[in-house]
Amino acid sequence: MEIEQIEIREHLRDHEPFSFLTDEELEEVARSVEVSYFRAGADIVSLGDEIRDLHYIRSGSVELFRRSGDLYNRLGEGDLFGQLGLLSGRPARFPARALEDTLIYFIPGELFKRLFDSNVAFADYVEVEDRTRLRQAAKQHAGDNPLLTLRTGKLVRQSPVTVSVSTAVEDAARLMTEERVTSVLVLEDGDGGETAAAPVLAGILTDSDLRRRIVAEGLPPSTPVGEVMSGNVSSVQRDQFLFEALLVMLRQNVHHLPVLDHRRPVGVLDMADIIHHETQNSLFVVRNIFHCGSHEELEALKPSVAASFVRMVNEDANSHMIGSAMATIGRAFKQRLLELGEEKLGPPPVPYCFLALGSMARDEQFLYTDQDNAMILDDAFDPKVHDEYFRELAQFVSDGLHRAGYVYCSGDIMATNKKWRQPLAAWKQQFTEWIRKPSAERLLHSSIFFDLDGVAGVTSMADELKSLIAQEASVQPIFLGCLAINANNRTPPLGFFRDFVLEHGGRHENSINLKRRGTAPLVDVIRVHALAAGSQSQNSFRRLEDTVAAGFLTASMAADLRDSLEFIAMVRARHQAWDAERGGEANNNIDPEVLSAFERRSLKDAFKVLANAQKFIRFRYRPVRGRQ
After folding, report:
1. Which of 191, 204, 206, 205 is nearest to 264 (CA)?
2. Predicted local distance difference test score (pLDDT) of residue 190
3. Structure confidence at residue 505 (pLDDT)
4. What does the alpha-carbon distance between residue 373 and residue 176 come to, in Å, rounded to a whole number?
5. pTM of the predicted model, to two decimals?
6. CATH 3.10.580.10, applies to 149-269
7. Ranges of each domain in the chain
8. pLDDT at 597 over 80
9. For residue 192, what pLDDT is reported?
10. Coil, strand, or helix at residue 205?
11. CATH (residue range 3-126)
12. What is the arithmetic mean of pLDDT over 454-468?
């Protein structure tokens, strides 16, 4: 061995993870190294570069940057970079630049991967430790798309222009002209002064309101704003993502959205602001849905729905962003079908609320899904007089959803089933019986009803059920114990030595069902904790936040569950997007051999977190003996 190679070998030996290698392995690395010198300020790796080598800092220091240009990390002698790119097969996400004159050892990627696979201690160091690696893997999908990562408050360009409900319309119009705005926020009288602690938002007045409700109706200029404003207005918090604000605007078909800091208005977001910020066209499928006039037109949007999903995945949106956007699209289909159904059948004879259940209610919907829904009817409902109307309406909606790609539920959990089309009082009685007189078998097929959300109609009925569930479930240990039993029915696909246990037989031979064996049991575990904590949230990530706040989980335990759910969900999402791009039928089954070594190891980490979480709830929520 040449003297230069001996010097390289000895330097590597003094730094982990190379200190874990055998003499033969160290010598092979030393013989394979290429050495490069970089002056201070020189670029070593640029954004998007293909990573072919492991970078080892022999001397000097290196800075890594985010896409935004913000400093991500600073490394020195003996540190590594480029390993995540090699393991994941992704291009460089963190540009690297020499902070001072720097000497880099370039270790071939193929040699690095071979050492990674053959030397456990070397691999464990590179990956830091299981949970940190999983966290890093989950964070890779946060994305850099402004629509998906920007907070709404960042787009607020000026303080809100406000008037009170008693302000004359002519004064409000004059103020809008002076301030060069197209809307003013309307506050309750007495709450509009500069010293008000918490002004109460009463509504909004826009140019459109002035045209339609004042000029067109011939009302006098002295008309109080409170009589013509748009009341009960939707709003967003300043720390919500921009994509969430866009979804609210599309769902409610509004062009101005008040932005709040808790209850205090801090500005108004205009649709033009979002378009100016390069919104992604994929999310405008919601608007197209509401322009459809028949089942056939809605069915024709199936390719657009798939395309929007694929674009979000390719743009590195995280699972919450994707799930929320896809659930909003699903809700829009339901809402438009209900509108078309009422046009066909006439107005409903009594008020009702159409429910979304399962993944749509949780804002965790992906591309491959069936329809799970139900209907709450007003307590004035008379089956003999009213049921035929609601049966036909439910059938109209269900048929339309099926044609649009939301296939009929194989378990018949749909509003077309009379059992799931009941008055509010009957629903309350049903949930009370499930909670107070539970059994694991009885709850096996009804846990989906504990993920519910009002989609259309009188959605306050759904809120009443959520409140009832939160109050009752948290004080019923037998119920929680039975849910915990069911949450252990679907185990992660790990064998004794942490090898994957694959499906046998059928069309998905030698694959893993990432929903049935991954995301679904994680959702089940999180639901148990959330119900115990009295949470009314539906989304799994929000439920984890509520559970930590209530003291039922530590922040670390919740982070493990969150990162595991995020990683498995994103592997599933990329698989579905890959199928959709190639014109195939999206599904939840994946062959682990198509994954990179990094993804396989991270997937095993996620399944291990699930297995431990199932053990935890099995002992924490034990049902009373003799009453299971």
Report:
1. 191
2. 63
3. 59
4. 44
5. 0.62
6. yes
7. 3-126, 149-269, 282-620
8. no
9. 43
10. strand
11. 2.60.120.10
12. 94
